[in-house]
Amino acid sequence: DDAYIVIGDNVSLNGTTITSRNHVSIGDNTQIGPNTIIMDNDGHPVWPPEDRWAKKGPSAPIIIQNDVWIGMNCIILKGLTIGHGSVIAAGSIVIKDVEPNSIYAGNPAKKIKNIGPSDL
Length: 120
Known about the structure:
The protein is mainly β and 120 residues long. It has no helices and 14 strands.
């Protein structure tokens, strides 16, 4: 009932799905590739099986800071922050916080390297 989604200025969403039961915030100048899913909740509980139809699963906010680039076919799960200026490689599944100015890739996404002006 109190869920909300905040999308900053100059944000590019391309076939993106956002599901919120808590809070999703997307910062300014962020690009999100096709088929990416951002979900701040688990949908339903895992146990007991009979509760899967009747109850909501846990939720926690997702904060995507400014100047982030999320590649296509990524999944961003609940309770994390993606730091300013970071890049999430295509096909990655993000389950933990992402440091600012870094590249993360994989399933689960792991830090590949820091990035900055010297990488131009």
